Amino acid sequence: MTLITSVRLRRILDSRGNPTVEADVLTESGGFGRAAAPSGASTGEYEAIELPPNEAISAARKHAVPRLVGEVHAGNQREVDGALRAADGTDSFSEIGANSAVAISMAAAKAGADVLGAPLYQHLGGTFRGDNFPIPLGNVVGGGEHAKDATHIQEFLAAPVGAPSVAEAVFANAEVHAKAADILDDRGISAAKGDEGAWAPAVDDAEAFDIMAEAVDAVADDRGFEIKFGLDMAGAELFEDGEYHYGDETKSTDEQIDYVAGLVDDYDLAYVEDPLDEDDYEGFAELTDRVGDKTLICGDDLFVTNVERLQEGIDTDAANSILIKPNQIGTLTDAFDAIELATEHGYDSVISHRSGETEDTTIAHLAVATDAPFIKTGTVQGERTAKLNELIRIAEDAV
Ligand SMILES: O=C(O)[C@@H](CO)OP(=O)(O)O
Ligand SMILES: [Mg+2]
């Protein structure tokens, strides 16, 4: 029934206006799935390789499509992803591109779900999934690699930890985003938007903390549930020649650890992603030892959704949370394996978008299917709301 009979690949636009890979997968019994690859700007050094879409498409047509069509079943994700790995032959998908691989992997999953007539989250997670929903971490203010002349810290994220439902959480994050605009306005600060729709004002990081604290408190009061905030520091982007650079100011690794530990206490941060460089397991471990009982210390560029890098983190107590980006590793199978390993060791998984996105909603389904406690997929802007609105629909059983 789910034998793959056709794989089509094309270039479409992503939210930055760059071309990306979209895949259509068809099965013997007429099941259809379509998915597109996202793309990062602050990419980790150890991520799977994204090729220029033209190259990724022609290489996948040559090497992968013949191993899929008439050969594997869309309903058997490990078989599909195994064929993609075999077709590529490298650890990093440098032959067919992680962008082709992830688009095909996700499209096959959707085709498998279509044959069953089941929503994707149920196909991926089984019938007992769909009652628990992730808390959405929403990017409200930011800069770094996602916006010029804005904050050094890449993302200030609203975290509606007390929201009674996923819909309430999604609406609360949008309100925090709107409240931050009001506060900026009151202070006479104009702000463009960064790649993910967050405000990108030319303020220093200290002022951004102030604005976030005020915005989340105001919306929490109004809504009547707890809203905290967190950060993606994208530490690897700040780190150069052995120091962390904040414009003209620099911090040594020890100073950076003290700084982040102080921020966790001062602002009661719910979440800190990539506080340190992507090679610094030791620094991560020290910070986790100091504040890991009060906040999530999450590895993005540190782990790159890779089970070997995650295992090293587990062995060294480097963090207590992992960011999961399917395109960082290339297939849904690999992403699932990372989530399972994380869960087994008490790490919280945060399923994540990329700064370059499409209307694809796979990550919303992945989060529900795996019972992930968090999802990071923006606050406003169509390619972000596509996932947030899909979560609301899943909660209502309306997908
Ligand atoms: O660093 C991150 O977590 C992501 C998404 O917010 O950014 P990018 O996709 O640019 O790597
Ligand atoms: Mg990150």
UniProtKB/TrEMBL annotation:
Q: Which residues bind Mg(2+)?
A: D232, E273, D300
UniProt keyword Cytoplasm, yes or no:
yes
Name the domain of life this protein comes from.
Archaea
Q: Which reaction does it catalyse?
A: (2R)-2-phosphoglycerate = phosphoenolpyruvate + H2O
Record localization = Cytoplasm; Secreted; Cell surface
Gene Ontology MF annotations:
magnesium ion binding; phosphopyruvate hydratase activity
Binding sites annotated in the UniProt record for substrate: H146, E155, E273, D300, S352, H353, R354, S355, K376
Domain Enolase C-terminal TIM barrel positions = 130-398
What the record notes about the co-factor is: Binds a second Mg(2+) ion via substrate during catalysis.
Annotated catalytic residues: E196, K325
Q: Which GO terms describe its cellular component?
A: cell surface; extracellular region; phosphopyruvate hydratase complex
Alphabetized InterPro entries for the sequence: Enolase (IPR000941), Enolase-like_C_sf (IPR036849), Enolase-like_N (IPR029017), Enolase_C (IPR020810), Enolase_CS (IPR020809), Enolase_N (IPR020811)
Q: What is its main location?
A: cytoplasm
What are the record keywords, sorted? Cytoplasm, Glycolysis, Lyase, Magnesium, Metal-binding, Secreted
Q: Where is the Enolase N-terminal domain?
A: 4-124
Do you know which Pfam families this protein is assigned to? Answer: Enolase_C, Enolase_N
Q: What is its EC number?
A: 4.2.1.11
What HAMAP family does the record tag this protein with? Enolase
For this protein, the record's NCBIfam families field holds: eno
Concerning its family, UniProt says:
Belongs to the enolase family.
Protein name per UniProt:
Enolase
Q: Which organism is it from?
A: Halogranum amylolyticum
Q: What gene codes for this chain?
A: eno
